[in-house]
Every structure is written in structure tokens, then in C-alpha cells.
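Predicting holo structure, NDP bound.
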Amino acid sequence: MTAIPDIMLNNGQRIPQLGFGVFLVPPPQTEAAVSQALRAGYRHIDTAEMYGNEAKVGQAISRSGLSRGEVFVTTKLSNDAHRPDDARRAFDGSLKSLGFDYVDLFLIHWPLPTRYDGDFVSTWRTLEEFYRDGRARSIGVSNFQPHHLRRIHTEGEITPAVNQIEVNPYLTQDGVRQFCADHEITVEAWSPLGRGKVLTDPTVTDIARGYGRTPAQVVVRWHIERGDVIFPKSVTPARISENIDVFDFELTGEDVEAIAALNRDQRTGPDPDTFAG
Ligand code: NDP
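Done. C-alpha cells:
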């Protein structure tokens, strides 16, 4: 198996470009799914306090035989814990659940502009504490629009290392991605397979046939060619292996463009400007 490429974040830390996501993986299935992913070669796990499975992620990693430093782990702040004291308690709680003394990346999960008086900047300043004390090796945000990022840029001290946003062939997010590129913020594409919805698109299936690959492999590869970090989720062992088996082929620029042209600005998840958690 060819190695998974790393991307260097704006603080010099490196993140594996392909990881494994565990949203909607029920806690009783999480340890098996993460163990399977680690055996298949994944070295990056994306979880969140709100997924309820941090403890199982931590157990799978500690029982894997890999050292803590070999696996990049991201978790995220609960929507109920944006006030600074709550954020401090929540971060301590996440470390405890995972069984770690640091995480590789800690994110504000949603900006929640209609809650907490729209004050996600105080929340961000609290994450800066975790970065400075070394318990979060990198910090970032999720579901932030350019206007939210601009506030962090002017009122915060540290530029987010990443912005984790919904991206798939039906939602190419050109505006947010360009803003992030201009400000050295790495884009992480959540629900990279559009929760499976894009895999039956005729353009995707035709292109996949041409490479002798599955639609999921072509969509994973499309994100990789565009330079985003991704972590497709699956509880199916064969799919977990399929989604990482993508480093022995490349899409042509023409095929990358043809898939991007499927964009219809169609979200599967909530709108970050109105979502209140
Ligand atoms: P994905 O786009 O990764 O799609 C997952 C779905 O696709 C599952 O139903 C899975 O089925 C199916 N699937 C996976 N691989 C294949 C394959 N090879 N062929 C066919 N079907 C396949 O959706 P997610 O929403 O899970 O997103 C991935 C990760 O992104 C999450 O786990 C989470 O870490 C992150 N995320 C972050 C959010 C945020 O707000 N920051 C919001 C949502 C997600 P099955 O499991 O049954 O195999």
C-alpha cells in the first residue's frame, strides 16, 4: 500500500490527508470500526464530543499496538460548551474520555452565530489557551464562513490551522475554499461522499468505470487531487479498505473538472449561518 500523503498546517504540524470519520458510528461499534481502520492503514481519526464515541476511539487506539504519536486525532467542542469556562471543562472532558494528555487538533464544531450573543471569538480565545499549553497541538474551526473567519482573523491572535466544512461534488464550496487558501487555512471536507448520495451520479460512475475503480474511490481521489483533507466514514470493513486504496492512481485534470462541474450548492447538513446547535 502506498503511503498516505501528509499536509503541512500553517503552524508546521503535519496531518495525514486521508483519515477515518466516526460521526453516527454508535459507541458499541466504534472500537471495532476504528480498529479495522487502523489495521487497514488509516492514521488519522476524526471524532467529536457530540458523537458520543470519544472513549471508544481512545480505547481502539490504545489497544492497537500503535504509539500515541503515530495516530493523528481530532475532536471538537460541544455546541453546549462555547462559554470559556464550559469550553475549558469540555476540553478536559474530551481528553479524559479519549484517555490522552493531548489531541492533535481541537475544533470549534459550529460558529452558532445566533447563540451566545454571536460571540464565538471568546470561544476561540479559549482554544488559544489549549494551544499555548500544548494540550491541543493545533486548533481550528468547523463550519465557519468567510465572515466568521474574518472576525477570528482580526480579533483573535492565532489563525485557525483548519476549517472543516461540508464539501462534495454537489457542494464544491469554491468561495470558502478560496478564502481559506488565501489565509493559509487548510480545508477539511466533511461528508466527502455526500453520505453516499454522489456515488450513483452518472458522471461519477462513468469516470469510475474508465479507471476500473469504484465511485467512492473516484470521489475520494477527487478530494485528494483538490488538496483537501478528508475522512470518509464507514462501518463496513470492505468499504473501510476500499476508501484508503486510492494511492496508486490519479484523476486527470479534465476528470477533476468534470466532477466539480456537478456542483449545485446543495447541502446535506445545516446552514452554518442559521444553525443554532
Ligand atoms: P460520508 O460522506 O463519509 O459518507 C458516509 C456514508 O457513505 C455511510 O452511509 C457509509 O455507509 C457510506 N459509504 C462509505 N464508504 C462507502 C463506499 N466505499 N461505497 C459506498 N458507500 C460508502 O459521510 P459522513 O457524514 O460520515 O462524513 C464523514 C466524516 O465527516 C464524519 O464521520 C465526521 O468525522 C465528519 N463530519 C463532520 C461534520 C462537522 O460538522 N464538522 C458534520 C458531518 C460529518 P456504511 O457506514 O454503512 O458503510
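The mean pLDDT is 98.
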